[in-house]
Amino acid sequence: MPMRRPSSLADRLFWPIVAGGAASLWFGPKALAVAGLAVLALVVHRLGRGGRFRRRVRAIARRHRETLALRRRQESYVDPYGNEILDGWLRERSYFAERTVLPRLEAAGYGDLIEPRWDEILDIVEAASLSVAAPDEAEALPEDGLAYERYCAALLERAGWEARTTKAAGDQGADVVAERDGVRLVVQCKRYAKPVGNGAVQEVVAARSYWSADCAAVVSNAGFTPAARKLAAATDVLLLHHDALAALGARPTGRPR
């Protein structure tokens, strides 16, 4: 974040006080009283900026709370020791704050408050991501890989695709092949307890060629490593959480995450 020099209350009051004092020399006590009221109004307005700043951040985050909640689920996972790993989500949270919240605050004249209240902005974004109840998938989400493939195929069917799982042998990296409106999609499914690496991306790239598919995706209940994201961006592969499958359009697009 660029450094910003906060505009102090004294800076904003300096010229009104000087102007009021000068006017009182010409027009007497009434001019001084008017200047005093103007200074008081500035003080009240300035003291209320913090509350208006917080309300604006909440409004921005609230508009995106569904997406934030989804991204929090996608970028978090529980490791084999039972620890909730939030590294990916924390990066996503900062990305949202920097790219979505910060420009709107600067445009509204709150640029001087961004740096001193950065942690407060992140806390508000965090609260928005937790304000949407997560789907109860404790029982629905299969534990083994083959069942997870069928689960993903069913989600694609719900979105209007004709989806089928492939045979374990000879699938050439495609666990699910789906078609809709003349578009063929190959999917590699990973039911993991840790972020998926770039090996899965390599496999689905090969599957896209083998199945003459139009697009390819790696789907997981967990997040993806930086190496997987980099390779997916270079090879035009979608990286998706299974939550996104039920609404996947016939021309799947989007920046791999």
From TrEMBL:
- GO MF, one annotated term: restriction endodeoxyribonuclease activity
On whether Transmembrane helix is a keyword of this UniProt record, the answer is yes
* Keyword terms, alphabetized: Membrane, Transmembrane, Transmembrane helix
Bilayer-crossing residues are 9-26
On whether RNA-binding is a keyword of this UniProt record, the answer is: no
Q: What range(s) does the Restriction endonuclease type IV Mrr domain occupy?
A: 145-248
Q: Which PANTHER family match?
A: MRR RESTRICTION SYSTEM PROTEIN, SLL1429 PROTEIN
Q: What is the name attached to this protein's record?
A: Restriction endonuclease type IV Mrr domain-containing protein
Q: Look up and give the organism this protein is from.
A: Methylobacterium frigidaeris
